[in-house]
Design brief:
The complex is a heterodimer of chains A (about 110) and B (about 110). Chain A is built from no helices and twelve strands. Chain A is mainly β and about 110 residues long. Chain B has about 110 residues and is mainly β. Chain B contains no helices and eleven strands. The chains are: A mainly beta (about 110), B mainly beta (about 110).
């Protein structure tokens, strides 16, 4: 069965530290990849997405993600986190050969200490 | 701004009551989803739909039911609410290249 794994469930960083959140998926074929963020008490918002082309994708608020097809990964990065980045981050994948149904990872809770 | 709406935003209801959570989208997306999420926890897919007259159960077993009579509308119904149903319910819709979430309904069953 298709699945999406986020191995870091909880991450605690100090402000200005660099961030990398892992995301791996188990689909074959053509995939579309997303990262969503959920700030405390708010709904999920799209951070960035990848469909094709340059595997390094830049999103909002200084986030970026790199698609590495050979590793089935789509890790999220930010060079210098801020306290306002404290949130839950979800990786999601849909696959052209799976009806493009969206599957989410379990989420990573990031806490940034001021 | 995404055009997907959930009502009500908050609901406190007594045990045994029947409730329907509404979800509507104006983007013409075929695929719609219901997720259950406890605070700070992962998203659990409870129902999804490929399109009109299509409904499927998700990964997490749920006593709720859904219907998809119109493309834009995907309501979720609990015939008899119980305290164990207390949670946040998130509706989403997607096409191949985009997915949007509603604001969620926070349900409390007392």
């Amino acid at each position: 069965a298709q699945s999406v794994s986020q191995h870091n469930h909880h991450v605690i960083l100090s402000e200005a530290a660099s961030l990398e959140l892992g995301c791996n998926y188990s689909y074959g074929g053509t995939v579309n990849l997303f990262w969503y963020v959920q700030y405390p008490g708010q709904h999920l918002q799209l951070l960035l997405k990848y469909f094709s082309g340059d595997p390094l994708v830049k999103g909002i608020k200084g986030f970026e993600a790199e698609f590495i097809k050979s590793k089935f990964s789509f890790n999220l990065r930010k060079p210098s986190v801020q306290w306002s980045d404290t949130a839950e981050y979800f990786c999601a994948v849909n696959a052209d050969n799976a009806g493009n149904m969206l599957t989410f990872g379990g989420g990573t809770r990031l806490m940034v200490k001021p | 701004e995404a055009d997907i709406y959930q009502t009500p935003r908050y609901l406190v209801i007594g045990t045994g009551k029947k409730i329907t959570l509404e979800c509507s989208q104006t983007m013409g997306h075929d695929k719609m989803y219901w997720y259950q999420q406890d605070p700070g926890m992962e998203l659990h897919l409870i129902h999804y739909s490929y399109g009109v007259n299509s409904t499927e159960k998700g990964d997490l077993s749920s006593e709720s039911t859904v219907s998809r009579i119109r493309t834009e509308h995907f309501p979720l119904t609990l015939e008899s609410a119980r305290p164990s149903h207390t949670s946040q319910y998130l509706c989403a819709s997607s096409s191949r290249r985009e997915a949007f979430f509603g604001q969620g309904t926070r349900l409390t069953v007392v």
